Amino acid sequence: MLSFAVLLSLLRLSASVHPAEFEAHPHSVNITQGQTATFNCTAHSIGSYWLVNDRLPEHDYNSGRGITTDDTVLESSTNLKEHLLKIPAIPLNNNVTIQCFIFNGPAIPSNLSRLLIQGRLNSVTNIDHIELNKTALLLTFTPPATLLGVPISNYSIEFVDKNTTQWTVGNNPVLPIQPSDYCTKQIMIKVLAWNGVGEGEPNNYTYTLHEVPSTFSHNTDLSYAANGINVLLYSKINNTDCIGKRPARLSTVIKRKQQNQETTLSCYLYDISNSSCSEVSIAAVSDSVWSVTVNISSYLLSGEHYTAETVFTNEAGNTSETVRTFSTYQITNATVKHSTENLICVACSFIPGTILTGCYIVFIDTQYNENKTLQVPKTGSNCESTLYSGVYDIYIYEGSNAFGSAPAIIINNKFINTSLIRISTSSSGVAMDSTSSSYVQSISTSRVVSLSSSQYTSVTKSTTLINSHTPTLNSQPGGSSDELSSTVLLVIAFVVGIILTLTITSVILLSYCLVKTKKKNKILKLAETAASEKFKHADVLLQTLKGTSFKTHSSYLSCSLPSPSPS
Fold first, then answer.
1. How confident is the model at residue 103 (pLDDT cuts 50, 70, 90)?
2. What is the DSSP secondary structure assignment for residue 401, as one 8-state letter?
3. Are 292 and 343 within one domain?
4. DSSP per-residue codes, 193-256
5. Where does the UniProt annotation place the signal sequence (predicted)?
6. Cα end-to-end span (Å), the chain
7. Could you tell me which residues are beta bridge partners of residue 283?
8. From the CB of residue 371, how many other CB atoms can be counted at a distance below 10 Å?
9. How far is CA 202 from CA 31, 124, 141, in A?
10. 162 and 87 assigned to the same domain
11. For the sheet containing 261-270, what is the strand order?
12. 8-50 pLDDT, tens digit each
């Protein structure tokens, strides 16, 4: 660049020259610290100069900034020149203003430009995580601000166990995790953003691994005591599990099936050694296993069906759920066995401490809606020998009858195979087989299945039992009620046909008689008229007409309905 003295002389000489003109103005520059920014000013001019922060580069104010200038003649005939200003990207030069002046006479300024320098990046913010699964953790965060055109080159993510000093370094936001290694320890994570300057400010994040609560061996215990049925829900917890896997809260949702009622019991667990609820107790099964017991007896009614959903929740909000189904009947199970050829035996199981003396069984034939009943003692079994082969619904009641209660257990569509077969019943009430005259007695059974629920109704049927090994006469084996129904329909159709035939015949005869009667009356009227006008012996003629000649044709003038024959 020209010295200031030479610059003044050139300004005086340029007064009569053509005005200077810009080909290119300098532009603002964003640059990474440590690099060098170059500003370009191209113009047709005799001379030029730069101002940095409104001062010449040689000014004391700009001392130490390391500014340099350079001029290159591009075309001498038009005085086209390229003027360069170079400024190192050091913190001192950040945000300085640059302007180029050209002249052939009066000086002409360029557009104002600025130098912005991107230094070390600030730290990332809002670090959080998402547990993708048990072996992968995804970090999320907000990047630090950076100048336009100066990108963040990469991120580094380091993590280390708090009890060690060795860091694992990478740049993948998906971190591998091993619950077996880190479950009992917190993980220290450090995230850094990088650019041309180097690493940015770090941001540390501490993560505690929380898995689904560790519970196992869920079971339900029912017993009977003086105050009624006791129901206990058991679950076991590994006491050696890390904090993340230990449940911090327990809730039990109890649902009464028939009325669709719902009750929730919720408790906090403290250190897996005590709880906030009197219904929940915790005891050590061994050095490493705790047993959690929930007594829900006070929330239940006798003779109902329930589900209980137990939910364990840990500090992270993860849950482990277990659903159990049970009833508050004193009967827990019933077994139906085929003992011998025709003996179907039933035994009932009861909860400990039951006060029942036995159970009451109702067999309902699903095809014929007939029922058989059986009283079963508390110990042992009892058998029924009169069941047909077929499919049955079996209802098991508490006590000695089915009155006023719903069944404790229902076994649907149970196939029972015996040697007893069902046959058609004759009008005399005696069943006969085609090969023998053995007599089989008709047995009438009437039982009330349930008086407390509309879904179980009273059933009264007359059934006939026959042993298939005893041949009888006048009946086809395998006969059914369908054959009897067909016969009855044929008889009814025959009787209706006879009635219709008699009705039609009577209508025809009645019409015939009415026609003949009208003809007779007309003849008599004509005879009377003729007698009064033209015949002297009218009385004789009238008597003749009413006399014997009509008696010989009584079937023509007199009409009566024929009586039906006895046949």
1. very high
2. -
3. no
4. EEETTEE---EEEEEE---S--EEEEEEEEEEETTEEEEEEEEEEETTS-GGGS--EEEEEEEE
5. 1-16
6. 151
7. 291
8. 22
9. 22, 7, 12
10. no
11. 274-275, 261-270, 249-256, 305-313, 319-327
12. 555 554 444 568 999 999 999 999 999 999 999 999 999 999 9
Same domain, 422 and 315: no
Work out the pLDDT band at 556, boundaries 50, 70, 90.
very low
Give residue 28's domain range. 4-118
pLDDT (0 to 100) of residue 433 = 37
Q: How many domains does the chain have?
A: 5
Q: Which of 162, 193, 208 is the last residue of a domain?
A: 208
Supply the CATH number for residue 368's domain.
2.60.40.10
The first and second tokens of residue 143, run together, are: 């990047």
Nearest to 100 by CA among 89, 116, 85, 86: 85
- CA-based nearest residue to 426, from 369, 384, 503, 484: 484
Tally of CB atoms within 10 A around 198 = 14
Sort residue 220 into left (φ over 0), alpha (ψ -120 to 50) or beta: beta
Which residues are paired to 278 by β-bridges? none
Statement: residue 561 has pLDDT above 60: no
The torsion angle over the Cα atoms of residues 47, 50, 55 and 60, rounded to 10 degrees, is -90
Q: What tokens appear for 31 in the block?
A: 């640059």
Q: Are 69 and 10 in contact (CB under 8 A)?
A: no
Identify whether 362 is part of a domain.
yes
